[in-house]
Amino acid sequence: MAAKLPPAPVYLARKSYRQRRIRDAARMLPLVGAVLWVMPVMYVAPATSTTGLLIFGIWVVLIIFAAVISSRITLGPNEIDKASLGQDGD
Amino acid sequence: MSFNLLILVSLSYVAFLFLVAFWAERRAHASGARWLRGPFVYTLSLSIYCTAWTFYGAVGYAARSGIEFITIYLGPTLVMVGWWWILRRLVRIGRTQRITSIADLISSRFGKSTSLGIIVTILAVVAATPYIALQLQSVTQSFAVFASEGGATWGQSELRTAAAWVAVGLAIFTVIFGTRSLDANERHSGIVIAVAVEAVVKLFALVAVGVFVVWGLAGSPEAVLAKIDASPISHFETGGGRWAALIFLSAAAFLCLPRMFQVLVVENADERNLQTASWAFPLYLVAVSLFVLPIAVVGLERMPDGANPDLFVLTLPLAEDQNALAVFAFLGGFSSATSMVIVSTIAVATMVSNHIVAPIWLNASRPGASMSGDVRRVIVRARRISIAGILALGYVYFRFSGGGAALAAIGLVSFSGAVQILPVLLGGIFWRGATRVGARLGLFVGFALWLWTLFLPSLGPNAVLSQTVLEQGPYGLQWLRPQALFGMTGLDPLVHGLLWSLALNTMFFFVGSVFSFPRPLERFQGAQFVNVFALSESARAWSGSGANAEDLLIMAQRILGGREAQTLFQRQATAQGKSGYLPDVTPDFIARLERELAGSVGAATAHAMIGQLTEGAAISVEDLIAVADEAAQILEYSNQLEAKSAEQDRTAKALRAANEKLTALSIQKDAFLSQISHELRTPMTSIRSFSEILRDTDMSGDEHRHFAGIIHDEALRLTRLLDDLLDLSVLENGQVTLHKQVGQLTDLLDRAIGASGVLNSKLQIVRDHASEDVTLHTDLDRLVQVFVNVIANAEKYCQADSPELRIAVQYHDGRYSVDFADNGEGIAPEARTMIFEKFARIADEGKAGGAGLGLAICRQIMARLDGEITYLTGQQGAAFRVTMPASETMAQSPALLASQ
To answer: Quick check: B836 and B855 in contact, CB under 8 A?
Structure first.
């Protein structure tokens, strides 16, 4: 029953292309964090302090990346995200 | 340190918070104070995630289980860092749908279902109660620590009295600042700012204790690291399963806890706040958890055996006689506990009033009585009573649980209860196929399993479940043992409970959704939620209405308040171009009004109230499809427009080409006129001058004959030119009569070559006589005329050193074609369209004997003979193809037949 929407553009200009990729990075970040944080328990760490430092190190790196990525994402009031409909142009 | 002084300090702190809250409310009211809604206050308000459980409990947790405590802060970090996935969507939905709580979100998504609202509310109350009890417990315990420092040992009764006072104080604060306005979407500025202040206090308190422990007691960070590795807590091994499960649990709880939903979504004033909070809040979490392990390790080392590790943050400074630091730490713990309780009670009270009290009241006042009674007062009163009720519940839980269980255990059980909402929440915002039936099933199953496997056992053996039930299962049914469901033993009880409850919850939700059919409103809301970024707000859930505007205004006034409702109606009337307070009751207006009401009383109640007035005007499947059709028609129309404009483009292009051709022709025509006058004048001039010579001069017979011959030749040339013009005009007007005869193609070519006089010239003719064995039935003379013309052209224009003309005959698709291709330079592409036009002449005029009529005549002749003459591209030089239908031939040549 869904009405067909006008076809989304297939190719984007450089600026909007960059914006899309930054959003991809924003999507990727938590997955990377999850994988990294599950790793310390996968092997026997030499010491708790090492494990702790590793976890905090990952934390700081994630925060830095999150800050850089989210500052580059532009959010407009009328931003329409066609990706949410599975019509992703690149 | 006197205990009375501590009481004084904490009362002053509370008074300070009251003042800050009042000030913020007034500022927000007066100037809208933008920074109150800015990203940093937003980030600080998220810190209610760090409750007393964090402030005191994290150290206790670390003292018992080592580094595992940190998982509780990793999960929320992942959610914040991944805000683009879920939080952004939740916040946008919360804003467009005017969501008041997580129960409202679920209820609204699944067709504004009252029953789902009730289920989620009950779940929230049950999960929040132990958590609130936990906060009361931590505050009273910290009081007790100071009391014992002053020499008094607190027994149960003193603890209870203190807890009761704290609960009452919190209730008063929350009622004052949390129920000022009915509209949940209107920010509680006072509360938000108080929570932000408390966030700063608790962070600094914890960091201060940490700094004191690391540099004051242990000496240096390196020493602390060494102590950590030497301490017994470093021997604790967390299984990979439990580790991952805890990260997941904390991430999920961060989204599902009613108080977190309140600050993340409901109190969010601007989507862009998420951008800052996505890194700022994880930073806050890092700061909070940085000193937990050091405090735990140093505490274990220095405090006597049997000291409660949950209170190390407080007892460690006290033991070292750092009274000021201890008071600061106390205020930090107090802040963590109170801010959580305040926000949590507001969130849960909103749910209770909107999803339990309001529907009951609405039912009781039916039928037709919806006009009586002040809804506003009922709801506000319900909310105040709920706040008091929830705190009372927490207090009761605190009294009966005896306050003995470790803080961390209660926290995790409470988390896993709230997390039961997760499948329905995510399914609701990402999957249009999720239905009310599935949601109800999933929540019910998940809630029941959580009670059985996690909540009841957490109360301790013999509290509700006896030791025997825990070990043998109810009635000896082994497979129903709460901590080894279906015989799954050897798993960590928390992982076990979480796994079973969430897995079956998700499965029932999915199966129920797949095998049920949603009501129209569910489908409508489903599309609104899942496509929140693509659909505009204008979609409407009402199809027309029998309601009268005055009734609606009366109802709206009872909920929104007189002035607000009148403003809303008046604005709508102005937008419709009417004066006065009563707009036309359009579906759009009803949808808008419903959204406004939903911001106060929740979607389900707002829908039901409007439904009472509009009677059966709710949207139907047909309406949904019609709306979709409308959209499709608009799309179709725009596609047609696009096609039309493309067609116009093509037409314009064709017209432009025609115009260019006409312009070129007109120029050539002018050129031709001057040419033809020149052509006519040249022979006329010589005829005139030679005849004058003949007339005026005496000359010999030979000379006489010579001049007469010239005059004759020139006269012939003139005649030929005029013949050509006449010929062309006859052909063009269709007045020509064809004399059809039978002849051989090869004879015709012989004749043409002879007539064109090329036999004596340099031009070599290359022919394939076998293929020319074709008998034709056509006007032979005319056809020869065409051939002569083409061959003569080749002779005239071919510039090659040893000019050559190939004549090839082919049969294709019922037509014969005769190709004449020379090896010269050919005709320039831009001239090819012009050569068949009358008067067309290319190259230098002087060389051409004719007046540019030859090919035009050929084209006319071939058209009469049902054939055509075209310029053949892709050859070395100039090439012409003469085609004629095979029906004009009597018989095909054997050679060509063989070649087919």
So the answer is: yes
Site from A84, A87, A88 to mutate, B interface, most B CB atoms within 10 angstroms = A84
ipTM, interface predicted TM-score of the complex: 0.85
Residues B247, A38 contacting (CB under 8 angstroms): yes
pLDDT digits (tens, 9 = 90+) for B339-385: 999 899 989 998 998 899 888 887 776 554 444 456 777 788 888 99
SS3 B640: helix
- CB pair distance less than 8 Å for B282 and A75: no
> What is the DSSP code string of B401-434?
HTT-S-HHHHHHHHHHHHGGGHHHHHHHHH-TT-
Sign of the torsion angle spanned by Cα atoms B261, B267, B272, B278: negative
CB contact under 8 A, A55 and B527: no
CA dihedral in degrees (B698, B703, B704, B705; nearest 10)? 170
Chain B residues in contact with A47 by the CB 8 A cut-off are 228-229, 234
**Residue B442: other Cβ atoms inside 10 A:** 27
Please check whether residue B432 is in contact with residue B438, taking contact to mean a CB–CB distance below 8 angstroms: no
Reading the block at residue B492, the tokens are 């960590």
Q: Which residue of B has its CA nearest to A68?
A: B279
Judged by average pLDDT, the poorest of B506-520, B720-734, B795-809 is: B720-734
Nearest to B323 by CA among B780, B9, B608, B42: B9
Contact list in B for residue A1 (CB cut-off 8 A) is: 624-625, 628
Task: Provide the shortest C-alpha distance from residue B288 to chain A (in Å).
Answer: 12
Pairwise CB contact (< 8 Å): A38 & B247: yes
Over the stretch B204-236, which tens digit does the pLDDT of each residue have? 999 999 999 999 988 888 898 888 888 888 776
B533 to A79: CB separation less than 8 angstroms, yes or no = yes
Of B70, B278, B293, the CB nearest to A70: B278
Query: Measuring CA to CA, which residue among B83, B42, B37 is closest to residue B284?
Result: B42
- Note whether B635 contacts A67, CB cutoff 8 Å: no
Q: Out of B84, B247, B635, name the one closest to residue A3 (CB).
A: B635
Residue B373 · residue B558 · CB < 8 Å: yes
End-to-end CA distance of chain B: 118
| Residues present in chain A in total | 90
Tell me if B67 and A47 make a contact (CB, 8 A cut-off).
Answer: no
Q: How far apart are CA B428 and CA B732, in angstroms?
A: 77
Buried b (16+ CB within 10 A) or exposed e, B444-465: bbbbebbbbbbbbbbbbeeeeb
Contact assignment for B81 to A33 by CB distance below 8 Å: yes
Nearest CB neighbour to B82, from listed A29, A51, A67: A29
B486 closest CA partner among B453, B530, B523, B438? B453
- Chain B residues touching residue A64 (CB < 8 angstroms): 279
- Phi-psi sector, B545: left (phi>0), alpha (psi -120 to 50), beta: beta
Omega cis (within 30) before B367: yes
Distance between A29 CA and the closest CA of chain B, angstroms: 6
Q: What is the pLDDT of residues B43-60, one digit of tens each?
A: 999 999 998 888 988 998
Sign, Cα dihedral of A61, A62, A67, A70: positive
- Distance, in Å, from the CA atom of B65 to the CA atom of B86, rounded to the nearest integer, reads 31
Nearest to B24 by CA among B176, B147, B185, B149: B176
Handedness of CA B786, B792, B795, B799 (dihedral sign): negative
Q: Give per-residue pLDDT as tens, A41-53.
A: 766 666 778 888 8
For B499-512, the DSSP string reads HHHHHHHHHHHHHH
